[in-house]
Amino acid sequence: MPEQDFELWPIPVQLIATMVRELSRHGITAQQLLAETGFSEQDLATPETMMPYRTAQKIIEKACELSPIPHLGLAIGTQQSPSSMGVLGYGINCCATVEDAMNMAVKYFRVASTLIITEWRQENGKLYWLTKPPVDLGKILPCIVEQEFSMLCRVHPMLTGQPLNVLEAHFQYSEPDDTSAYQSIFACPLYFSAEENQLVLAAEILQQPIIQANPLSVLAAERMCNEFMLANPTADDLVLQIRQLILEQGNEYWSEDTIAKRLNITGRTLRNQLRRVGTSYQAILNSLREQIAREALTRSTLNVSEIAATVGFSDARSFRRAFKQWTGMTPEDCRNATAV
Known about the structure:
- The chain is an alpha+beta fold.
- It folds into two domains: 226 residues, Alpha-Beta Complex (H-NOX domain); 107 residues, Arc Repressor Mutant, subunit A.
- The protein has 17 helices and seven strands.
- Strands 3-4-7-5-6 form a five-stranded mixed β-sheet.
- Strand 3 and strand 4 form a beta hairpin.
- Helix 15 packs across helix 16.
- The chain is elongated.
- The N terminus is likely disordered.
């Protein structure tokens, strides 16, 4: 799958809303940040609003370009609390121990308003909290990692009543000109241009109890997190399901509403879910048809009319026109290029 479609997920708007509020204090308006995105300031005030991954990325890029704040991510992260993560934050706040909280954060990271994947590992008495972007985030990587790591430093004392003593902090990007803000927050050796983005902690913190632990509330939060994940699948999750349903029908190509019924959702819900991950049923169908047509042209002796019927076209002329739109070349050109 091309990078632009790889592991994308819809983003709850809490992070963007916090960023907009912070920058508004410095004279940068929501309209400036949201221009040409299709989203309004009212959308940011609606908890149910979801935003395609790439749209959120573009807004953060604009925010970083316009921000007069040297380290926007640190400014955002140090303002956040468990509630900033929505229902996931509620669940984390009710876990029994830090280890339970970290496991929940890793399992349901998409429920929070984040553009990066989190994980942790334990080795030789140390705990490594790692973050990695699913795609190249370019210039906004520092902002995203700053926000994630500084939020962890702020949230941990709220959960446990104990300060988070960071042993080392590693960042994949180059060292900024001024690291004083980093030193103030992390208070440990800093390593830039590192192989991974990670905070190194003492493994003993895993057993620290969460102050407001509540097993029943954790179960309720997990149920809500699971419901969120089902209602807001990743591009991979949903696209693969749809592609599989299409392939199962052979040469019969179902309508979008029929596919939705097989997924036990309405057509409108399916369209909304696909829009959130930046695609559509027609785009998925066209991609699959192109793939099947290319394989038939390069690996079989079927003529163009037969291939057209295979991918759901009533005549060769319509197929030729569609194939040219998909690939920039005619079916004959595709076959000849392979034969050379």
